[in-house]
Design goal:
The structure is a single chain. This protein is α+β, with helices and mostly antiparallel strands. The chain has one domain: Glutaredoxin (3-Layer(aba) Sandwich). It has eight helices and five strands, in the order αββαβαααααββα. A five-stranded mixed sheet has the order 1-5-4-2-3, sandwiched between helices. α3 crosses α7. The N and C termini lie far apart (58 Å). 33% of the residues are buried. It is found in: Periplasm.
């Protein structure tokens, strides 16, 4: 009888601990849930919206890269998308051109951030000529940069980035979307922020693992910044010919406080 009582007590403690873990972050206070998911997301997907010109994004970058290196749960697929709104198109295009050219990531992201915030070269995220010169100075060939800048592949990704950011309902950057529906606005408490991302992103992957057939083969972990934007395709999106960016530019989004 005593043995059964001990087992019951241990089981109750475990259940209480699980319930407490589920309440670690509260909807409405720590994150919001979109009524319509922005992507056809698989469990464990984390999207980071940012802008090279954002001071908060620049301040968070070292901590973000550290989390990606040794703090991110192995089951998480991390996707980075440049916020595309108003006059931020130049920075978003630069982001995708760097990847279209096969330049080193995240090293080039760090160089762009430093150029903008330390060296006063903000023109590279607004002016095509300044951006092309910067890329050539960092090892790219002029003709390759010109081709990538106006490529269909880059334009398609820009269109998708714009649609995703608009659907996210974020009013600033940096910001995160987990599993296509949990919206997290970043703050300066980086340890708590990244723990929140791990907690929400693994909430559904745990259920997925429990339901996986015995002979199923786990997919390889997607590398940070190498996941293609197609994996973050807007929910219900149809494949269509790339459309040019809208000429009318909405008001610039203010960085998150």
């Amino acid at each position: 009888m005593l043995k059964k009582s001990i087992v019951a007590m241990l089981l109750a403690a475990a259940l209480a601990g699980g319930a407490q873990a589920q309440l670690k972050y509260v909807e409405g206070a720590d994150y919001t849930t979109l009524t319509a998911p922005v992507t056809e997301a698989k469990a464990g997907q984390v999207i980071n919206f940012f802008w090279y010109g954002c001071g908060h994004c620049y301040a968070m970058e070292p901590s973000l890269q550290k989390w990606l290196g040794d703090g991110k749960d192995a089951s998480i697929d991390f996707i980075r998308i440049p916020a595309f709104t108003g006059n931020w198109e130049g920075g978003a295009r630069l982001f995708y051109v760097v990847r279209e050219l096969g330049m080193a990531v995240p090293e080039m992201d760090e160089k762009i951030f430093d150029a903008v915030h330390k060296d006063g070269k903000r023109g590279i995220i607004f002016d095509k000529g300044a951006a092309l010169k910067f890329l050539v100075e960092n090892g790219a060939k002029q003709e390759d940069v010109e081709k990538a800048w106006k490529s269909l592949a880059v334009q398609q990704k820009l269109n998708q980035a714009r649609d995703l950011f608009n659907a996210s309902q974020l009013d600033g950057v940096p910001g995160f979307i987990v599993d296509g529906k949990y919206v997290i606005a970043a703050d300066n408490n980086y340890p708590r922020l990244f723990d929140k991302l791990n907690t929400l992103a693994t909430k559904n992957t745990a259920k997925k693992e429990e339901a996986k057939p015995a002979d199923a083969t786990p997919t390889e972990e997607a590398k940070a910044d190498e996941v293609k934007i197609e994996e973050a395709k807007p929910a219900g999106a149809k494949t269509e010919e790339a459309k040019p960016a809208a000429e009318e530019k909405p008001a610039e989004t203010k960085p998150a406080a």
